[in-house]
Amino acid sequence: MHINNNKIFYFTCFFTGLVILYSCFIRVLATFLTPTLKELVTLLPGIFLIFLTYVFYCKETFRNYLFEFCAKWNWVFIFFIALILRIVWVFVADVTQLSDFSSYEDMSIEVFNGGNIFDPTYFRPSGPSILFALSYHLFGQNPLSAQVVLALLGALTVVAVYWIVYLVSGSLASSALASMCLAFWPSHIIYSVLMGTDTLFCFLVVVSFLLLVVAQTAKPSELRFFMFLLSGVFIGLSNWTRGTAPLFLLAWILYTLFYLDKVSYSLKGAFMVFLGFIIVVLPIFIHNYNVFKIVSPSMQRITGWSLMMGVNLDNQGGYNGKLASKIGANINDKNKENNVHDSILKSKLAKEEALKIVKESPFKVLTMILTCKPSKFIAKAESVMGWSLTTSPHSNLLMFLNIINHAVYITLIFWSGVILCTRWFYYKIEKTVPLNAFLWAFLLSFFSHMILEVQPRYHHMFIPLFIIILVVGLNNIAFRCPHDSGNYSH
């Protein structure tokens, strides 16, 4: 591996750490400049937990005990713990699907009954609905069927994290710690009952990344390139689930081109990743060309819509119901051009509205991008508790679980940012460097959402990445401390 490539890795880690810490800083600053009870209640426990974790981890005996204890766990045990937690929540929650989740449930019923697999409004991807319809065929038409499948995918994501951490750290104790963190992660469990894109997309991206890491060291070379192909296949499947999948494809390909040992391996590896993606996405290309006469891997025609939401000032780059109604009314009133689909017209009108907002208030939009949107994308936990518990018999737990979710999340991202900015993350760089691909995907997503619509739940697929960063850093600290008795790698 060339030193220049190592420098790219150093810079990527340090810059990502700065982005994370900056997002945390502006959230804390905004909370204390304009304090509200809701923000204080969700932020202060997180700050206290940050302090508490620092105090405990500074103690040598605690570090030794933590890794010694985790070294006793194996991935099968952790998988069943994760699966049981999610299955129990599925059967206990008794949740009614709301908002986007309700739409995906309706689409899945349509697909199950033999309808078009493509959303006729081209507003939502079809991947989740196809999966849920398949679960109906296998286990009966009941939301529980889809939720059990999501619970299984969540548990499998935990296993994938286990092996990723082992490959990039060489420590079974760290693998167990990281996977147990994700197994017990509040929002990761809660999402098991929500019939949306989040759990499925997270699973596909994490498994694709695992295959990418395996491909780097797999032998013989035929197996290596097959792993690259499979990695591309899983990114292709994720493209059926969310429109941001090409950002991960780009990150994977750039990593392959930069970091494989030989130029011939790099080019062939990148081609195999791309080929795997194309094989799975080809039906979308064909459909888009037949319907819209365009060549695109996207199942959605919402670029203008997302841009309009991303620059709206009233909701700080988030969803704005008033703007949505305005565009809908204009579509109904406007004379439609011949052979122009509603989705195309909707995106066009939304783009015009977005440009209007930017022209009228360019400084305010720029200020919002710099001071509000980073915090919303990174520094705030998902509002998944509200979606899951509002209609549940356990709605009385909403505030309590919300506080826990915010506290552990702000602690996770703060220490992830700190570790990325320090030397502790670079120990055994030959192992940890594959994380560059995931970091690039994170940065590409971050900057995309600084322009497009942003919601806290849009970072859900990066929670495994933050956990991996934190645990690898903690392992390196424990291993390199001269007074520690060992790193419990085995």
- Oligomer state equals single chain
Report the portion of residues in β strands: under 5%
Radius of gyration: 23 Å
Dominant shape: globular
Distance between the termini: 27 Å
Contiguous uncertain segments of 5+ residues: 481-490
Separate helix tally: 23
What's the count of strands? 0
Domains, number = 1
Order of helices and strands: HHHHHHHHHHHHHHHHHHHHHHH
Overall pLDDT metric: 84
Derived from helix and strand composition plus strand pairing, the structural class reads mainly alpha
Characterize the main sheet: none
Helical residue percent? over 70%
Protein name: Dolichyl-phosphate-mannose-protein mannosyltransferase
GO molecular function: mannosyltransferase activity; pentosyltransferase activity
GO cellular component, one term: plasma membrane
Membrane topology: Multi-pass membrane protein
3D structure, described in words:
- By secondary structure, the chain is mostly helical.
- The chain has helices at 3-33, 37-57, 60-70, 75-93, 99-112, 127-139, 143-169, 172-183, 186-190, 198-217, 221-239, 245-259, 263-292, 303-311, 321-333, 342-360, 362-371, 373-379, 384-389, 398-420, 429-432, 435-451, 463-480.
- The longest helix has 31 residues, at 3-33.
Tags for this entry?
490 residues, mainly alpha, disordered C terminus
